[in-house]
Amino acid sequence: MKNRLLSFLLLTLLLASPILAQVASVPEVFNVSPQPAPWVIAREKADQGDAQAQVQLATFYFQGIDLPQDCREAIKWLRRAADQRNAEAIQGLGTLFDDGVGLTQDCKDHREAVHWYKRSALVGNVLAEVAEDRLAVIYESGDGVPQNHAEALKWFKKALARKDYGPYYRLTYMYYHGSGVKQNYVAALMWANLGAEVSPNSKSISQQNKLTAVEMRDEIAAKLTPKQIAEAERLAQRWKSRQRKGRLSRFIDWLVNEFR
Length: 260
What we know:
Number of strands: 0
Number of helices: 14
Radius of gyration: 22 Å
């Protein structure tokens, strides 16, 4: 949940601040008329078609800031901003449909989430990276949509191409268990080796997944011959060399085909 709500946390911090700043800037003099609440200011601007204010108002509704928590109202205002091609709104709709649980209503809809995440992925910013990660996991797990490992691999490849280490653990699992791909312990060990070597300070792979990668690495290695272990290590080293040179795309395609 924490990772999936990253977008709305960003929206709260980055987008709500301009309106909050207006309230905070009231002159320190006596008899000054009270300023409107932040959500009132956002609503006035949102009604005038201001996309940023529409996203801010949606955030107030989604998180229940000064307003009753209402995911349907949040969706309404995010859609209006998305119609203006606002990147935060497009990603926000994906996040909300992915985890949209309100106090009295459930707005979760993974098909809608996939639709908006795919639109967000086209933007190419940090929010698009979050969308790509979620698309890969949703398709790999079949969470609310038909399970599609080929589609999951496509989105994992996009994440790997931008040096995101998150897919290492998922790919280890897929090749170890033959989940949507042909079971291959050498490929599984390669990904486990890479996941186990990720720096503890890296934010692109959770500490739990890193520990799991270490455990799986040892478990997989116990099933292989020394020659197979050496091959997995050779592939991992080749991967790191390509990564340093920024030449991963073709190698990713080769790996996928080799271990299909």
